[in-house]
Structures are given as C-alpha cells and as structure tokens.
Amino acid sequence: MIGRLSGQLLVRHPPQLLIDVNGIGYEVEAPMSTFYSLPEVGAKVTLHTHLVVREDAQTLFGFATENERAMFRALIKVNGVGARLALTILSGISADDFIRCIMDSDAAALTRLPGVGKKTAERLIVEMKDVLKKWQAEGGEGVSTSPVSALVKPNDAVADAVSALIALGYKPPEASRMVRGIQTKDLSSEEIIRLALQTAAK
C-alpha cells in the first residue's frame, strides 16, 4: 500500500496530478478540496494517499490532509459509494456542509451532488452519522478546505474547468451550464471549478 507521496508537482489538471518522486512519475487523482491547497507546478508537494486496486485498474488517490483521506476511506465503506463518487462528494461539498447534511439528515442537499440519488443520500446519512459523531468526540475536524493559493493560469481555463467537472461526474451540458454562469475572466481553471461547485451546492 502506498500511503504517502512526497516529490515535485509536475502536472495539475483537475482531478489528476503527476508527481515526480525520485525520477518516478506517480499519477494521482485528488478531490478539489486538495487542489485548492496545492503549490504551483514545479514545487514540492506531499500528499496522503490511498491505493484502490481492481481487476482492471490500480488508481492512486491523493489528499492534502490525513483527515481528508480518513473521510474518503469512510465514504467508500458506505454501500453504493465507490472511490469515484467519494471523490465527487469531497469535491462538491465542504466538510462543514457535509457534516451538517449528515447530522441534520438533509438528504435533499446531498442529492444535489452528481451521482447521489435519494437512496444513496439516505445510506450516507445512516452510515456516516455514527462515524462523524465518533470523529467529533475525538476532536477530528473532517476534511481540510484550505483557501485557494496562488494558481497557475492555464491557456484555456474554461475548457479545463468543464473537462474537470465532467470527470467529477457532471453531464457535459450541465458542466457547461455551471461554468457559463461564472465571470471567468482572469480566473484559473481551479478557481472556476470552485465557484461552479459552490453555486451547484446552493
């Protein structure tokens, strides 16, 4: 099991990263909550990781904090929630809002996330409530939602943002609509994604 990576950040294209560790390039998928706290390309980065092994693929997921990884691991234990959906949940809702939805049994808010239907929302509430109560009792803070740091502006931030939203589970027309509602001038793809996800969660 690969539990931690520390190396040079070579590529950041939500939701994918490429990290050089002593000459070996690791492809990592990360939620947007992690992207918001990443340094610029070329800088050193350390991620807490979780390796998912299936018959047809091995996928490495990376997280900015141990709490964020713990939330991911708790989510994938919920019946009907796989690694991709867990990544989408961590990208589409802040830790505080997710905890509020679970504790208040607010299934309607959870169903606004792509891929989360009514039954999945109800399972999340039932199965995650005890986990979150335990974390709170132990003083855990859940997922880190650090503010956006200085970001590298890509040449086509809008297209990159739409592509990332599709990768996170939104349908192409919906992803395009989400981005069209944002003033995208001078924003990086990650800033556009953050605003689109915030708007979708309202």
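Next protein, fold it too.
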Amino acid sequence: MKTIFDVVILTDSRYLNDSKTDDYKHNVYYEDRLVYHALEQVGLKTLRLAWDDMFFDWSTTKSVLFRTTWDYFDRFDEFSKWLEIVSQQTTLLNSEAIIRWNIDKHYLLDLQRIGVHIAESHFIEKGAQVTLMQLHDILNWKETVLKPCVSGAARHTYKLNLDNLHEYDTVFQELIANEAMMLQPFQFNIVSKGEISMMVFNGTFTHAILKKAKAGDFRVQDDFGGSIEDYKPTDEEIAFAETSVKACPELPIYARVDIFEDNEGKIALSELELIEPELWFRHYKPAALMLAKGIKEKLS
C-alpha cells in the first residue's frame, strides 16, 4: 500500500478527544493541535491517533511522532512489542534506539561518563539482596528519593529518611525483585527553587518552564498539584541544556532537559526526556513550527 501520511502524531486513547470540563485533557489536545497545524503548515500530511490503534496500517505513514503516549509505562511490555513491530514499518521520532536508551534511567550514567553533571545517584540492580537501611548506612545518606529505573509520572517515587526506612522496605523488596531502582540524595533546592524544564528542538533551545511543588510536597509534576510559570534561563543554563542533548547517542529531534541547582550549588541534570515529554507549546507557540520544520528536514 502506498504512503498516505507524512506524520502520525501519537497519543493514548484518553487524550484523543478534546474536553470542555477537564483542563488537563484540553491542554493535551490543544498542544497536539498546535503541532498538527504546524506540520500541515510546512506541507506535511498529518493524522493524530492512539499508539495502540488496532486498525491503522503503520506502513502507510512516513513517520510517527511520539507526543502524549502517557500510558506506555503502565503497559510497558505491550508498548515494547509494539515499538519493535512499528519501527520496521515506519520512521520513529524520536528513533526506537534513542527511546529504548532513554526509557531506562541508566542512561544518566552514560551522560555522566561524557561530562554531563547529573544528580548524585546510586543504582540498585534487579534482584539485589540489600535493605534500605543498609543502603543508607553504606552511602551515609539521611534523606533520599527512591524511584524505579523505568518510570514516569512519579510512579513508585518515595521520599525517605532514617525514620521511615522500615515503613518502605517491604515495597522496596517487592520492587527490587522485579526491576532496577535508583536512590538519590534529597535535593532541597528543587523544593525551595523548583525544577527548570528546557525545551530543545534539533539541538537548539526554544523556551523554558519553571516547575514548583505545592506546599508540603516534593514532586513538581502538575499531577501532584505542582505549579508552572514561564522562565528566562541564563546563558549557562541554555548551554547546559544544549550540551546535554548533543551528548545523546544521536541527536533527538525534540528533547526536554530538566535541570535544577543541586545541593552543592551546581546546575545538574534531573532528567532528559526524549520519549513523550510535555513540551509546553502553549507557552511558546513558535516551538511547534520549529519542530515541524525539523521533521520536514529529516523526512526529506
């Protein structure tokens, strides 16, 4: 069958339709529409679908663009098999190789090895025979955050201290039997100053957002009541974000670089989001056109 579409924008079924009553769903839909219209503006024939659409022939599109596939980590095995099949039928943006690299937070160690400053981290491999108390004793850490190496939306993310380790050790033992985990010293500046999300397209910075946790919480995601505001980064922060993206195994067409000031006062990488990051197009609409132009260039 001949190619019909240039780009299919991928979402998950929860966000296929607009909502007049749910602001969160409306924002997702609206931002995807901004991308849709930008792609059409540069002459690319476009469609928006759920990634698990059973009736679509993926060989009929030149590429698929991962945007809001936010159920993938809850359906990881299914998503992984789908990824393998679809990557043989069309071009993935970002690529399957970079998605698989970025899915597992061990990628942070790859970046650290080539000079990107990351949050101090200790990785605990699947099947490790260790307790939370032993880890904190060995590392001499008193307040920490525990999270899975394959995660999203703060799934199984816990704030620990020496008083609650016994309370969380049972869930930790259940998790570590099945997946790798990472432990990081609690970063106090994320609570007091927030976390900065830097949007980078084809290696070039476009705009930034400052995310802050609500009072009494440490998670900056808006799922947990966090707030966001526009942010004007320093030249140093922009250079850090662009350098982090260019350190990837290949240059991603889009990236969100989450940075913060660590406990030593240095700019540090919290996460490099290359799969389906929220990119805040509604805060800077020209970024959608930058993405569309980059995709057109790649496809030609």
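About the second fold: The chain has three domains: 5-94, 107-117+189-274, 122-186.
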